[in-house]
Amino acid sequence: MTLYRKYRPKQFSDIVGRDSITKILTEELKSGRIAHAYLFSGTRGTGKTSIARILAKSLNCSNRDKETSEPCNECDSCIAINEARSQDLIEIDAASNRRIDEIRELREQVKYVPANATYKVYIIDEVHMLTTEAFNALLKTLEEPPSHAIFVLATTELQKIPETIFSRCQHFSFGKLTFVQIIERLKYIISQEKISVDDTVIEEIARRAGGSSRDAESLLGQVLSIGKDKISVEDASLFLPKVGFSRVMSWIQFLAKNDAKSALESLTKLENEGINLEFFLQEALEISRQLMLYMVVQDDEALGLYFSKDEIIEVQNLCQSSSVGQMRQIVIQLLRSNQDMKLSPDLPILPIELAVVELCSEVRVQSSELRVEKKEEKIRIADSAHEETRETQNVASVRRDDSADKREEVSSPVSDPQILTNTIKEEVKKSDQVSQAEQKSHSLKEILDGWGEVMTKIKDKNGALNFVLGVAQPVAVNGDSLELGFKYRLQQEKVSEMKNREIVETVIHEVYGSRYRIEPTLCQDMESIKKSDNIEGSPKLNKEEDALVEAALEVFEGAVVEN
Ligand SMILES: [Zn+2]
After folding, report:
1. What pLDDT is recorded for position 82?
2. Does domain 444-556 have CATH number 3.40.50.300?
3. What global pTM score does this model have?
Protein backbone atom coordinates (compact mmCIF):
# COMPACT_ATOMS: atom_id res chain seq x y z
CA MET A 1 0.00 0.00 0.00
CA THR A 2 1.29 3.46 -0.80
CA LEU A 3 2.16 5.72 2.10
CA TYR A 4 -0.37 8.22 0.88
CA ARG A 5 -3.17 5.71 1.30
CA LYS A 6 -1.79 4.16 4.44
CA TYR A 7 -1.55 7.50 6.21
CA ARG A 8 -4.59 9.14 4.69
CA PRO A 9 -5.96 11.38 7.46
CA LYS A 10 -8.95 9.80 9.22
CA GLN A 11 -10.17 12.79 11.19
CA PHE A 12 -9.90 16.58 11.07
CA SER A 13 -7.11 16.69 13.65
CA ASP A 14 -4.91 14.54 11.37
CA ILE A 15 -4.95 17.22 8.71
CA VAL A 16 -1.79 19.31 8.52
CA GLY A 17 -1.93 23.00 7.67
CA ARG A 18 -5.64 23.42 7.09
CA ASP A 19 -6.66 24.75 10.49
CA SER A 20 -8.97 27.51 9.33
CA ILE A 21 -10.84 25.23 6.94
CA THR A 22 -11.32 22.42 9.44
CA LYS A 23 -12.37 24.92 12.10
CA ILE A 24 -15.17 26.34 9.93
CA LEU A 25 -16.34 22.88 8.92
CA THR A 26 -16.43 21.57 12.49
CA GLU A 27 -18.39 24.65 13.58
CA GLU A 28 -20.89 24.00 10.82
CA LEU A 29 -21.19 20.37 11.85
CA LYS A 30 -21.77 21.38 15.47
CA SER A 31 -24.42 23.91 14.65
CA GLY A 32 -26.01 21.71 11.99
CA ARG A 33 -25.80 24.54 9.46
CA ILE A 34 -24.30 22.53 6.66
CA ALA A 35 -23.96 23.94 3.17
CA HIS A 36 -25.38 21.83 0.39
CA ALA A 37 -22.51 22.52 -1.90
CA TYR A 38 -18.85 23.10 -1.15
CA LEU A 39 -16.16 24.07 -3.59
CA PHE A 40 -12.61 23.09 -2.66
CA SER A 41 -9.99 24.63 -4.93
CA GLY A 42 -6.21 24.45 -4.87
CA THR A 43 -3.04 22.64 -5.82
CA ARG A 44 -3.11 18.88 -6.21
CA GLY A 45 -2.32 16.75 -3.21
CA THR A 46 -3.14 19.39 -0.61
CA GLY A 47 -5.94 17.63 1.24
CA LYS A 48 -9.10 18.48 -0.71
CA THR A 49 -10.52 14.97 -1.05
CA SER A 50 -9.17 13.93 2.35
CA ILE A 51 -11.17 16.68 4.03
CA ALA A 52 -14.20 15.94 1.86
CA ARG A 53 -14.15 12.31 3.04
CA ILE A 54 -13.79 13.27 6.68
CA LEU A 55 -16.69 15.67 6.27
CA ALA A 56 -18.78 12.85 4.78
CA LYS A 57 -17.82 10.60 7.66
CA SER A 58 -18.72 13.16 10.31
CA LEU A 59 -22.05 13.89 8.66
CA ASN A 60 -23.07 10.25 8.76
CA CYS A 61 -21.26 9.03 11.88
CA SER A 62 -23.58 7.59 14.50
CA ASN A 63 -21.12 8.32 17.33
CA ARG A 64 -19.84 11.70 16.25
CA ASP A 65 -17.94 13.51 19.01
CA LYS A 66 -20.15 16.41 20.05
CA GLU A 67 -17.24 18.53 21.26
CA THR A 68 -14.97 18.25 18.27
CA SER A 69 -17.30 17.07 15.50
CA GLU A 70 -14.76 14.36 14.69
CA PRO A 71 -16.02 11.08 13.18
CA CYS A 72 -15.61 7.99 15.42
CA ASN A 73 -13.99 5.83 12.72
CA GLU A 74 -15.66 2.84 14.41
CA CYS A 75 -19.33 2.84 13.48
CA ASP A 76 -20.61 1.00 10.38
CA SER A 77 -20.84 4.15 8.34
CA CYS A 78 -17.31 5.33 9.22
CA ILE A 79 -15.82 1.91 8.51
CA ALA A 80 -17.64 1.66 5.20
CA ILE A 81 -16.23 5.01 4.14
CA ASN A 82 -12.72 4.13 5.34
CA GLU A 83 -12.92 0.93 3.32
CA ALA A 84 -14.22 2.82 0.29
CA ARG A 85 -17.43 0.77 0.09
CA SER A 86 -20.02 3.19 1.42
CA GLN A 87 -23.14 3.54 -0.74
CA ASP A 88 -23.73 7.00 0.61
CA LEU A 89 -20.41 8.49 -0.35
CA ILE A 90 -20.23 8.75 -4.10
CA GLU A 91 -16.94 9.85 -5.60
CA ILE A 92 -16.94 10.92 -9.22
CA ASP A 93 -13.87 11.75 -11.25
CA ALA A 94 -15.07 14.43 -13.62
CA ALA A 95 -12.00 13.94 -15.80
CA SER A 96 -13.43 10.63 -17.02
CA ASN A 97 -17.15 11.35 -16.44
CA ARG A 98 -17.46 14.72 -17.95
CA ARG A 99 -20.41 14.34 -20.26
CA ILE A 100 -24.00 15.42 -19.74
CA ASP A 101 -25.29 11.82 -19.67
CA GLU A 102 -23.25 11.08 -16.59
CA ILE A 103 -24.47 14.17 -14.78
CA ARG A 104 -28.06 13.35 -15.81
CA GLU A 105 -27.64 9.93 -14.26
CA LEU A 106 -26.29 11.59 -11.13
CA ARG A 107 -29.33 13.85 -11.03
CA GLU A 108 -31.61 10.84 -11.15
CA GLN A 109 -29.78 9.10 -8.32
CA VAL A 110 -29.62 12.18 -6.11
CA LYS A 111 -33.38 11.93 -5.61
CA TYR A 112 -33.15 8.63 -3.75
CA VAL A 113 -32.68 8.81 -0.01
CA PRO A 114 -29.43 7.48 1.48
CA ALA A 115 -29.20 3.73 1.97
CA ASN A 116 -27.87 3.61 5.51
CA ALA A 117 -27.22 7.15 6.59
CA THR A 118 -28.58 10.66 6.95
CA TYR A 119 -26.73 12.21 4.04
CA LYS A 120 -25.66 11.22 0.60
CA VAL A 121 -22.36 12.92 -0.10
CA TYR A 122 -21.13 13.45 -3.65
CA ILE A 123 -17.50 14.29 -4.17
CA ILE A 124 -16.87 15.45 -7.75
CA ASP A 125 -13.15 15.65 -8.29
CA GLU A 126 -11.57 17.76 -11.06
CA VAL A 127 -15.00 19.30 -11.56
CA HIS A 128 -13.61 21.86 -14.00
CA MET A 129 -13.38 19.07 -16.58
CA LEU A 130 -17.18 18.91 -17.00
CA THR A 131 -18.58 19.99 -20.33
CA THR A 132 -20.74 23.11 -20.44
CA GLU A 133 -23.88 21.01 -20.81
CA ALA A 134 -22.84 18.87 -17.85
CA PHE A 135 -22.21 22.00 -15.77
CA ASN A 136 -25.68 23.26 -16.63
CA ALA A 137 -27.22 19.97 -15.60
CA LEU A 138 -25.24 20.03 -12.35
CA LEU A 139 -26.36 23.60 -11.74
CA LYS A 140 -30.02 22.53 -11.84
CA THR A 141 -29.29 20.05 -9.05
CA LEU A 142 -27.38 22.60 -7.02
CA GLU A 143 -30.23 25.04 -7.36
CA GLU A 144 -32.70 22.68 -5.75
CA PRO A 145 -30.78 19.98 -3.91
CA PRO A 146 -32.72 17.34 -1.99
CA SER A 147 -32.23 17.93 1.75
CA HIS A 148 -30.20 14.71 2.08
CA ALA A 149 -27.67 15.58 -0.62
CA ILE A 150 -24.33 17.29 0.01
CA PHE A 151 -21.95 18.11 -2.85
CA VAL A 152 -18.24 18.66 -2.53
CA LEU A 153 -16.76 19.90 -5.79
CA ALA A 154 -12.97 19.79 -5.97
CA THR A 155 -10.83 21.49 -8.56
CA THR A 156 -7.25 22.43 -9.29
CA GLU A 157 -8.41 25.10 -11.76
CA LEU A 158 -10.76 27.52 -10.08
CA GLN A 159 -10.82 29.89 -13.03
CA LYS A 160 -12.63 27.24 -15.09
CA ILE A 161 -15.58 27.04 -12.71
CA PRO A 162 -18.61 28.92 -14.06
CA GLU A 163 -19.76 31.82 -11.93
CA THR A 164 -23.24 30.26 -11.66
CA ILE A 165 -21.75 27.17 -9.97
CA PHE A 166 -19.33 29.17 -7.86
CA SER A 167 -22.07 31.36 -6.42
CA ARG A 168 -23.98 28.28 -5.23
CA CYS A 169 -21.08 26.89 -3.23
CA GLN A 170 -19.28 27.59 -0.01
CA HIS A 171 -15.74 28.04 -1.27
CA PHE A 172 -12.54 26.98 0.46
CA SER A 173 -9.15 27.69 -1.01
CA PHE A 174 -6.40 25.12 -0.43
CA GLY A 175 -3.06 26.86 -0.83
CA LYS A 176 0.23 25.03 -1.10
CA LEU A 177 1.48 23.54 2.12
CA THR A 178 4.55 25.19 3.60
CA PHE A 179 7.96 23.61 3.76
CA VAL A 180 7.60 23.30 7.54
CA GLN A 181 4.16 21.71 7.31
CA ILE A 182 5.34 19.12 4.81
CA ILE A 183 8.35 18.32 6.98
CA GLU A 184 6.05 17.88 9.97
CA ARG A 185 3.92 15.46 7.98
CA LEU A 186 6.94 13.52 6.66
CA LYS A 187 8.44 13.25 10.14
CA TYR A 188 5.16 11.90 11.49
CA ILE A 189 5.06 9.16 8.85
CA ILE A 190 8.74 8.33 9.34
CA SER A 191 8.20 7.94 13.09
CA GLN A 192 5.21 5.69 12.46
CA GLU A 193 7.28 3.57 10.10
CA LYS A 194 10.01 3.39 12.77
CA ILE A 195 12.73 4.34 10.33
CA SER A 196 15.45 6.93 10.70
CA VAL A 197 15.95 9.27 7.76
CA ASP A 198 18.66 11.91 7.49
CA ASP A 199 17.24 15.43 7.94
CA THR A 200 18.79 16.63 4.69
CA VAL A 201 16.87 13.94 2.83
CA ILE A 202 13.62 15.00 4.47
CA GLU A 203 14.26 18.62 3.54
CA GLU A 204 15.06 17.75 -0.05
CA ILE A 205 11.87 15.71 -0.34
CA ALA A 206 9.86 18.58 1.11
CA ARG A 207 11.41 21.03 -1.32
CA ARG A 208 10.79 18.85 -4.33
CA ALA A 209 7.16 18.32 -3.34
CA GLY A 210 6.33 21.91 -4.29
CA GLY A 211 3.70 22.32 -1.59
CA SER A 212 1.90 19.05 -2.28
CA SER A 213 1.65 16.65 0.58
CA ARG A 214 0.75 13.82 -1.78
CA ASP A 215 3.88 14.33 -3.87
CA ALA A 216 6.01 14.48 -0.72
CA GLU A 217 4.56 11.23 0.59
CA SER A 218 4.95 9.52 -2.73
CA LEU A 219 8.60 10.51 -2.88
CA LEU A 220 9.16 9.44 0.70
CA GLY A 221 7.59 6.11 -0.22
CA GLN A 222 10.19 5.64 -2.95
CA VAL A 223 13.01 6.50 -0.60
CA LEU A 224 11.72 4.14 2.10
CA SER A 225 11.44 1.38 -0.47
CA ILE A 226 15.22 1.07 -0.21
CA GLY A 227 14.31 -1.08 2.78
CA LYS A 228 16.90 0.14 5.29
CA ASP A 229 16.25 1.13 8.90
CA LYS A 230 18.51 4.12 8.51
CA ILE A 231 18.49 6.16 5.35
CA SER A 232 21.40 8.45 4.58
CA VAL A 233 21.80 11.14 1.93
CA GLU A 234 23.77 8.69 -0.14
CA ASP A 235 21.08 6.01 0.07
CA ALA A 236 18.45 8.48 -1.03
CA SER A 237 20.51 9.96 -3.87
CA LEU A 238 19.06 7.37 -6.21
CA PHE A 239 15.63 8.95 -5.83
CA LEU A 240 16.77 12.48 -5.18
CA PRO A 241 19.26 13.35 -7.87
CA LYS A 242 19.89 16.55 -6.00
CA VAL A 243 22.90 18.70 -5.92
CA GLY A 244 21.87 19.93 -2.52
CA PHE A 245 21.06 23.39 -1.32
CA SER A 246 24.51 24.34 -0.05
CA ARG A 247 26.33 23.70 -3.33
CA VAL A 248 23.80 25.55 -5.41
CA MET A 249 23.78 28.39 -2.92
CA SER A 250 27.54 28.79 -2.87
CA TRP A 251 27.56 28.81 -6.65
CA ILE A 252 25.01 31.64 -6.69
CA GLN A 253 27.20 33.42 -4.16
CA PHE A 254 30.10 33.28 -6.60
CA LEU A 255 27.89 34.88 -9.22
CA ALA A 256 26.74 37.55 -6.80
CA LYS A 257 30.38 38.35 -6.04
CA ASN A 258 31.27 38.35 -9.74
CA ASP A 259 33.73 35.60 -9.02
CA ALA A 260 33.72 33.96 -12.43
CA LYS A 261 36.76 31.85 -11.68
CA SER A 262 35.25 30.05 -8.70
CA ALA A 263 31.88 29.73 -10.41
CA LEU A 264 33.45 28.12 -13.49
CA GLU A 265 35.66 25.89 -11.38
CA SER A 266 32.76 24.58 -9.37
CA LEU A 267 30.83 23.86 -12.57
CA THR A 268 33.67 21.75 -13.88
CA LYS A 269 33.85 19.99 -10.56
CA LEU A 270 30.16 19.21 -10.65
CA GLU A 271 30.45 17.85 -14.15
CA ASN A 272 33.39 15.69 -13.18
CA GLU A 273 31.36 14.25 -10.36
CA GLY A 274 28.75 13.22 -12.89
CA ILE A 275 26.13 15.64 -11.61
CA ASN A 276 23.35 16.25 -14.10
CA LEU A 277 23.96 19.88 -15.02
CA GLU A 278 20.47 20.38 -16.34
CA PHE A 279 19.19 19.48 -12.93
CA PHE A 280 21.75 21.70 -11.26
CA LEU A 281 20.69 24.61 -13.42
CA GLN A 282 17.04 24.15 -12.57
CA GLU A 283 17.92 24.13 -8.90
CA ALA A 284 19.99 27.27 -9.27
CA LEU A 285 17.19 28.91 -11.21
CA GLU A 286 14.60 28.11 -8.58
CA ILE A 287 16.77 29.24 -5.68
CA SER A 288 17.82 32.49 -7.35
CA ARG A 289 14.19 33.12 -8.19
CA GLN A 290 13.28 32.74 -4.54
CA LEU A 291 16.12 35.12 -3.62
CA MET A 292 14.93 37.72 -6.10
CA LEU A 293 11.34 37.52 -4.87
CA TYR A 294 12.47 37.80 -1.29
CA MET A 295 14.54 40.88 -2.06
CA VAL A 296 11.50 42.57 -3.51
CA VAL A 297 8.77 41.61 -1.05
CA GLN A 298 10.78 40.72 2.09
CA ASP A 299 8.23 38.05 2.93
CA ASP A 300 9.78 35.75 5.53
CA GLU A 301 6.78 33.46 5.41
CA ALA A 302 7.21 32.84 1.71
CA LEU A 303 10.80 31.77 2.37
CA GLY A 304 9.45 29.24 4.85
CA LEU A 305 7.58 27.61 1.98
CA TYR A 306 10.83 26.68 0.40
CA PHE A 307 13.74 26.72 2.82
CA SER A 308 14.62 25.28 6.20
CA LYS A 309 15.50 27.54 9.14
CA ASP A 310 19.26 27.28 8.63
CA GLU A 311 18.90 27.81 4.93
CA ILE A 312 16.79 30.93 5.48
CA ILE A 313 19.68 32.52 7.40
CA GLU A 314 22.00 31.86 4.47
CA VAL A 315 19.43 33.19 2.05
CA GLN A 316 18.97 36.39 4.04
CA ASN A 317 22.71 36.93 4.29
CA LEU A 318 23.10 36.67 0.56
CA CYS A 319 20.15 38.99 -0.01
CA GLN A 320 21.85 41.64 2.12
CA SER A 321 25.04 41.54 0.11
CA SER A 322 23.36 41.58 -3.28
CA SER A 323 20.85 43.77 -5.10
CA VAL A 324 17.51 43.11 -6.75
CA GLY A 325 18.90 44.19 -10.10
CA GLN A 326 21.77 41.78 -9.81
CA MET A 327 19.56 38.89 -8.78
CA ARG A 328 17.18 39.70 -11.61
CA GLN A 329 20.10 39.46 -14.03
CA ILE A 330 21.09 36.12 -12.55
CA VAL A 331 17.56 34.78 -12.99
CA ILE A 332 17.35 36.07 -16.56
CA GLN A 333 20.70 34.58 -17.54
CA LEU A 334 19.97 31.23 -15.94
CA LEU A 335 16.60 31.15 -17.64
CA ARG A 336 18.34 31.71 -20.96
CA SER A 337 20.88 29.00 -20.24
CA ASN A 338 18.04 26.66 -19.41
CA GLN A 339 16.56 27.27 -22.85
CA ASP A 340 19.92 27.18 -24.60
CA MET A 341 20.76 23.85 -23.03
CA LYS A 342 18.27 22.20 -25.35
CA LEU A 343 20.32 23.53 -28.24
CA SER A 344 23.58 22.12 -26.98
CA PRO A 345 22.76 18.64 -25.66
CA ASP A 346 26.32 17.46 -26.27
CA LEU A 347 27.88 20.20 -24.21
CA PRO A 348 25.41 21.05 -21.46
CA ILE A 349 28.04 22.96 -19.51
CA LEU A 350 28.47 25.62 -22.22
CA PRO A 351 25.24 27.57 -21.71
CA ILE A 352 25.93 27.76 -17.97
CA GLU A 353 29.49 28.86 -18.56
CA LEU A 354 28.25 31.58 -20.85
CA ALA A 355 25.84 32.72 -18.16
CA VAL A 356 28.69 32.91 -15.66
CA VAL A 357 30.86 34.94 -17.98
CA GLU A 358 28.02 37.19 -18.99
CA LEU A 359 26.97 37.82 -15.42
CA CYS A 360 30.39 38.32 -13.96
CA SER A 361 31.37 40.81 -16.62
CA GLU A 362 28.22 42.85 -16.34
CA VAL A 363 29.47 45.03 -13.54
CA ARG A 364 29.43 48.58 -14.78
CA VAL A 365 32.98 49.78 -14.27
CA GLN A 366 33.35 53.54 -14.39
CA SER A 367 37.06 53.82 -15.05
CA SER A 368 38.20 52.62 -18.42
CA GLU A 369 41.43 51.45 -16.87
CA LEU A 370 39.56 49.19 -14.54
CA ARG A 371 37.58 47.95 -17.47
CA VAL A 372 40.68 46.96 -19.36
CA GLU A 373 41.99 45.21 -16.28
CA LYS A 374 38.77 43.34 -15.90
CA LYS A 375 38.75 42.37 -19.52
CA GLU A 376 42.19 40.90 -19.23
CA GLU A 377 41.15 38.99 -16.18
CA LYS A 378 38.16 37.58 -18.02
CA ILE A 379 40.36 36.44 -20.87
CA ARG A 380 42.63 34.76 -18.35
CA ILE A 381 39.60 33.01 -16.94
CA ALA A 382 38.55 31.98 -20.39
CA ASP A 383 42.01 30.53 -20.93
CA SER A 384 41.91 28.66 -17.66
CA ALA A 385 38.44 27.42 -18.55
CA HIS A 386 40.05 26.15 -21.70
CA GLU A 387 42.52 24.15 -19.61
CA GLU A 388 39.73 22.88 -17.38
CA THR A 389 37.77 21.79 -20.37
CA ARG A 390 40.72 19.72 -21.50
CA GLU A 391 40.70 18.03 -18.13
CA THR A 392 36.96 17.62 -18.27
CA GLN A 393 37.26 16.16 -21.69
CA ASN A 394 39.71 13.55 -20.46
CA VAL A 395 37.61 12.68 -17.47
CA ALA A 396 34.50 12.66 -19.58
CA SER A 397 35.94 10.24 -22.08
CA VAL A 398 37.07 7.95 -19.28
CA ARG A 399 33.62 8.10 -17.81
CA ARG A 400 32.07 7.29 -21.13
CA ASP A 401 34.19 4.18 -21.40
CA ASP A 402 33.20 3.13 -17.90
CA SER A 403 29.55 3.52 -18.50
CA ALA A 404 29.56 2.08 -21.98
CA ASP A 405 28.17 -1.22 -20.79
CA LYS A 406 25.58 0.42 -18.57
CA ARG A 407 24.01 2.77 -21.04
CA GLU A 408 23.77 2.51 -24.73
CA GLU A 409 24.57 6.11 -25.20
CA VAL A 410 25.52 7.38 -28.58
CA SER A 411 28.87 8.85 -27.78
CA SER A 412 29.06 12.29 -29.21
CA PRO A 413 32.27 14.13 -29.84
CA VAL A 414 33.10 16.63 -27.13
CA SER A 415 33.24 20.04 -28.74
CA ASP A 416 36.58 21.59 -29.36
CA PRO A 417 37.73 23.43 -26.24
CA GLN A 418 39.21 26.11 -28.46
CA ILE A 419 35.74 26.90 -29.72
CA LEU A 420 34.53 27.19 -26.16
CA THR A 421 37.32 29.56 -25.26
CA ASN A 422 36.68 31.62 -28.33
CA THR A 423 32.99 31.78 -27.52
CA ILE A 424 33.76 32.94 -24.01
CA LYS A 425 36.18 35.56 -25.32
CA GLU A 426 33.54 36.69 -27.76
CA GLU A 427 31.05 37.00 -24.94
CA VAL A 428 33.51 39.01 -22.89
CA LYS A 429 34.00 41.32 -25.83
CA LYS A 430 30.26 41.71 -26.29
CA SER A 431 29.51 42.38 -22.67
CA ASP A 432 32.42 44.77 -22.55
CA GLN A 433 30.71 46.80 -25.23
CA VAL A 434 27.58 46.61 -23.17
CA SER A 435 29.35 47.97 -20.12
CA GLN A 436 30.23 51.12 -22.02
CA ALA A 437 26.55 51.96 -22.19
CA GLU A 438 25.22 54.59 -19.85
CA GLN A 439 24.07 53.58 -16.40
CA LYS A 440 20.34 53.85 -16.91
CA SER A 441 20.00 53.26 -20.60
CA HIS A 442 20.27 49.82 -22.18
CA SER A 443 21.98 48.75 -25.34
CA LEU A 444 19.86 47.21 -28.05
CA LYS A 445 21.42 43.87 -27.23
CA GLU A 446 20.39 44.13 -23.60
CA ILE A 447 16.89 45.07 -24.67
CA LEU A 448 16.79 42.07 -26.99
CA ASP A 449 18.14 39.82 -24.24
CA GLY A 450 15.24 40.70 -22.01
CA TRP A 451 12.67 40.79 -24.78
CA GLY A 452 11.62 37.19 -24.24
CA GLU A 453 10.69 38.11 -20.68
CA VAL A 454 8.73 41.11 -21.90
CA MET A 455 6.77 38.89 -24.26
CA THR A 456 6.05 36.34 -21.54
CA LYS A 457 4.78 39.01 -19.18
CA ILE A 458 2.61 40.57 -21.85
CA LYS A 459 1.18 37.18 -22.64
CA ASP A 460 0.07 36.91 -19.01
CA LYS A 461 -1.64 40.27 -19.22
CA ASN A 462 -3.11 40.06 -22.67
CA GLY A 463 -2.68 37.06 -24.95
CA ALA A 464 -3.84 38.88 -28.06
CA LEU A 465 -1.41 41.73 -27.51
CA ASN A 466 1.41 39.21 -27.18
CA PHE A 467 0.34 37.84 -30.53
CA VAL A 468 0.48 41.23 -32.20
CA LEU A 469 3.71 42.23 -30.54
CA GLY A 470 5.25 38.88 -31.43
CA VAL A 471 5.86 40.08 -34.97
CA ALA A 472 7.60 43.24 -33.85
CA GLN A 473 11.19 43.71 -32.84
CA PRO A 474 13.11 46.35 -30.92
CA VAL A 475 15.26 48.03 -33.55
CA ALA A 476 16.85 50.96 -31.75
CA VAL A 477 17.28 52.64 -28.38
CA ASN A 478 17.63 56.42 -28.29
CA GLY A 479 17.84 57.72 -24.74
CA ASP A 480 14.49 56.88 -23.18
CA SER A 481 12.79 55.98 -26.41
CA LEU A 482 12.66 52.44 -27.67
CA GLU A 483 11.88 51.94 -31.31
CA LEU A 484 9.82 48.89 -32.19
CA GLY A 485 9.86 47.79 -35.79
CA PHE A 486 6.65 46.47 -37.34
CA LYS A 487 6.29 45.07 -40.77
CA TYR A 488 2.58 45.76 -41.01
CA ARG A 489 0.62 48.89 -40.29
CA LEU A 490 -2.24 47.00 -38.65
CA GLN A 491 -0.03 45.67 -35.88
CA GLN A 492 1.83 48.93 -35.56
CA GLU A 493 -1.44 50.78 -35.03
CA LYS A 494 -2.73 48.25 -32.54
CA VAL A 495 0.30 48.61 -30.35
CA SER A 496 0.20 52.40 -30.70
CA GLU A 497 -3.24 52.52 -29.09
CA MET A 498 -3.01 54.15 -25.69
CA LYS A 499 -4.30 51.15 -23.74
CA ASN A 500 -1.90 48.70 -25.38
CA ARG A 501 1.00 51.12 -25.32
CA GLU A 502 0.55 51.47 -21.57
CA ILE A 503 0.67 47.73 -21.02
CA VAL A 504 3.83 47.38 -23.08
CA GLU A 505 5.57 50.29 -21.39
CA THR A 506 4.66 49.06 -17.92
CA VAL A 507 6.04 45.63 -18.67
CA ILE A 508 9.21 47.12 -20.15
CA HIS A 509 9.70 49.09 -16.96
CA GLU A 510 9.19 45.93 -14.88
CA VAL A 511 11.71 43.98 -16.91
CA TYR A 512 14.51 46.51 -17.43
CA GLY A 513 13.99 48.73 -14.42
CA SER A 514 14.05 51.82 -16.64
CA ARG A 515 11.19 53.70 -18.25
CA TYR A 516 11.08 53.72 -22.03
CA ARG A 517 8.66 55.38 -24.38
CA ILE A 518 7.91 52.94 -27.17
CA GLU A 519 7.95 54.18 -30.75
CA PRO A 520 6.10 51.70 -32.92
CA THR A 521 7.40 52.31 -36.43
CA LEU A 522 6.90 50.68 -39.75
CA CYS A 523 9.96 48.85 -41.01
CA GLN A 524 9.36 47.64 -44.52
CA ASP A 525 12.55 45.70 -44.49
CA MET A 526 12.51 43.73 -41.25
CA GLU A 527 14.30 40.76 -42.76
CA SER A 528 17.41 42.73 -43.66
CA ILE A 529 17.54 44.35 -40.22
CA LYS A 530 17.57 40.97 -38.62
CA LYS A 531 20.21 39.66 -40.94
CA SER A 532 22.48 42.65 -40.66
CA ASP A 533 22.39 43.10 -36.89
CA ASN A 534 23.05 39.39 -36.46
CA ILE A 535 22.08 39.44 -32.83
CA GLU A 536 21.51 36.15 -31.14
CA GLY A 537 18.19 35.58 -29.51
CA SER A 538 16.32 38.10 -31.59
CA PRO A 539 12.78 37.01 -32.30
CA LYS A 540 12.74 34.71 -35.28
CA LEU A 541 10.39 35.52 -38.03
CA ASN A 542 10.29 33.74 -41.32
CA LYS A 543 8.19 34.20 -44.36
CA GLU A 544 5.80 31.39 -43.47
CA GLU A 545 5.18 32.76 -40.01
CA ASP A 546 4.69 36.17 -41.52
CA ALA A 547 2.03 34.90 -43.85
CA LEU A 548 0.37 33.02 -41.01
CA VAL A 549 0.30 36.05 -38.77
CA GLU A 550 -1.03 38.20 -41.53
CA ALA A 551 -3.80 35.74 -42.26
CA ALA A 552 -4.66 35.43 -38.58
CA LEU A 553 -4.73 39.17 -38.16
CA GLU A 554 -7.18 39.46 -41.00
CA VAL A 555 -9.45 37.02 -39.21
CA PHE A 556 -9.16 38.83 -35.90
CA GLU A 557 -9.18 42.31 -37.41
CA GLY A 558 -10.73 44.83 -35.12
CA ALA A 559 -11.12 42.45 -32.23
CA VAL A 560 -7.54 41.44 -31.70
CA VAL A 561 -6.61 43.49 -28.70
CA GLU A 562 -9.98 44.58 -27.56
CA ASN A 563 -10.61 42.13 -24.73
ZN1 LIG B 1 -18.54 6.85 13.13
Report:
1. 94
2. no
3. 0.56
Maximum CA extent, the chain: 87
26 pLDDT band (50/70/90 cuts)? very high
CATH number for domain 245-401+415-435, candidates 1.25.40.10, 1.10.10.10, 1.20.272.10, 2.60.200.40: 1.20.272.10
CA atoms within 13 A on the CB side of 212: 13
pLDDT tens-digit series, residues 513-560:
888 888 888 776 665 554 444 444 444 444 444 444 444 444 444 333
Angle ∠(493,499,505) on CA atoms, nearest 5:
90
Per-residue confidence (pLDDT) for residue 285, from 0 to 100: 92
Q: Are strands 481-486 and 473-478 parallel, antiparallel or unpaired?
A: antiparallel
Domain with CATH 3.30.300.180 in the chain: 444-556
- The answer to whether the beta carbons of residues 553 and 491 sit under 8 Å apart is yes
Other CB atoms within 10 A of residue 338 CB:
17
87-132: pLDDT as tens digits: 999 999 998 888 888 888 888 888 898 888 899 999 999 999 999 9
Q: How close is the Cα of 53 to the center of ligand 1, in Å?
A: 12
Q: Where are the CATH 1.20.272.10 domain residues in the chain?
A: 245-401+415-435
| Distance (Å) from CA 64 to ligand 1 centroid | 6
Residue 418 CB-half CA count within 13 A = 0
CATH code for the structural domain at 179-236? 1.10.8.60
User: Separation of 178 CA from ligand 1 center, angstroms?
Assistant: 31
Rounded to an integer, what distance in angstroms lies between the CA atom of residue 201 and that of residue 206? 9
CA of 29 to the centre of ligand 1 (A): 14
Q: What are 241-252's pLDDT values in tens digits? A: 656 788 899 999
**C-alpha torsion sign, points 249, 255, 256, 261:** positive
